[in-house]
Design brief:
The protein is an all-alpha fold. It is built from three helices and no strands. Helix 1 packs across helix 2. It starts with 5 loop residues before the first helix and ends with a helix.
């Protein structure tokens, strides 16, 4: 998207990652206070498994290449 601004894009990605990490840690801490640490750890253990199942519904590379041709 920005072939001439690789440094800008890299900086934005790092900044967003650090910012999201700070907000996420605060949110998880608040949720842990509200619902208990074991509940939140259980929830955040299930979410990656759900994401893995959802990846099964992504189109394959072959089908994307066939559509382009």
């Amino acid at each position: 998207m920005f072939p001439k601004n690789i440094g800008l894009v890299s900086g934005l990605m790092v900044g967003f990652g650090i910012g999201a990490g700070g907000i996420g840690a605060t949110l998880i801490g608040w949720l842990s206070d509200q619902y208990g640490i074991y509940t939140i750890f259980g929830l955040f253990g299930i979410l990656p498994m759900l994401a893995a199942v959802l990846t099964l519904f992504l189109p394959s590379e072959r089908s994307l290449i066939a559509k382009e041709a």
